Amino acid sequence: MNRHLVPAVSALAVIVTFSAAAAAQEMKPDRAIKYRQGILQAMGWNMGVLGAMVKGEIPYDKDKAVRSATFIGELAQMPFDGFVPGSETGAPTKAKPDIWKERAKFDKLAQAMQAETLKLVAAAKTGDVAQLRTAAGATGKACSNCHDDFRNK
Amino acid sequence: MNRHLVPAVSALAVIVTFSAAAAAQEMKPDRAIKYRQGILQAMGWNMGVLGAMVKGEIPYDKDKAVRSATFIGELAQMPFDGFVPGSETGAPTKAKPDIWKERAKFDKLAQAMQAETLKLVAAAKTGDVAQLRTAAGATGKACSNCHDDFRNK
């Protein structure tokens, strides 16, 4: 094969692989469940960093706080793409079927959480630990407000 | 209990829960492995959307393309936090131990991928499918460049 063709062919192979995945994800609940779980656990990881920082378990570090808060704010926009109809089952999930029966309520709690994460980013950027603590608490509360109603233990 | 105290107590409980998770994630490779896998599969999901779009398998939609490209660009900054020393094992993983033996090479491939995702976001924003196709191919190639060397089949 002409060696100049190799990169183009490889790139095409990658797109083919990814689009096969896309076709599957349009239909299969297990992919949607794993998607939302991946995003939500990454949010939890970064919330853990901030939680440890505001409690003094790890040293306060403004750059790390901004980094984790920014990631949380970005990730907060993503998980709801994975709560597609039919994904009540298909893989192990703690999501309650009520999500799809009371979608407006679920969406409202989701939006409230997203709004808190924007405040969290702003608080982290101030460099003031007290503001970070308040905002992290409010964000955590917004997470648990939804978990209380829509996530099984 | 004074009802005005309840929100503060609940928020504190949430922080305690999250910081317990943080303490664990500092040490336990399984958490790091799940973190990076969650991020990487979310990148794959969104690459799948773009792949299907540039191949015409799903209708081209500029807003959706920008959304997925933006998510990919944001997510691209995140997974490497999960490649902590000691996380060669601890949960099922395709990551090769070479990552920790040739870290500079791995990091260089990671940075090259991150750079491609920024071009991907810019290409998506042009609204030109041809530019999106080229950038998606280049991003996919940057993904596979690293997978080829550092991910088991």
In short:
With 153 residues, the first copy, chain A, is an all-alpha fold. Chain A has helices at residues 6-27, 29-54, 62-75, 98-101, 103-126, 129-150. In chain A, helix 3 packs antiparallel against helix 5.
What can you see in these coordinates?
The structure is a homodimer of 153-residue chains. By secondary structure, chain A is mostly helical. Chain A has helices spanning 6-27, 29-54, 62-75, 98-101, 103-126, 129-150. In chain A, helix 1 crosses helix 2, helix 2 packs antiparallel against helix 3 and helix 3 (62-75) packs antiparallel against helix 5 (103-126). The longest helix of chain A has 26 residues, at 29-54. The first copy, chain A, starts with 5 loop residues before the first helix and ends with a helix. The model of chain A is unreliable at 1-9 (pLDDT under 50). At the A-B interface, helix 1, helix 2, helix 3 and helix 6 of A face helix 1, helix 2, helix 3 and helix 6 of B.
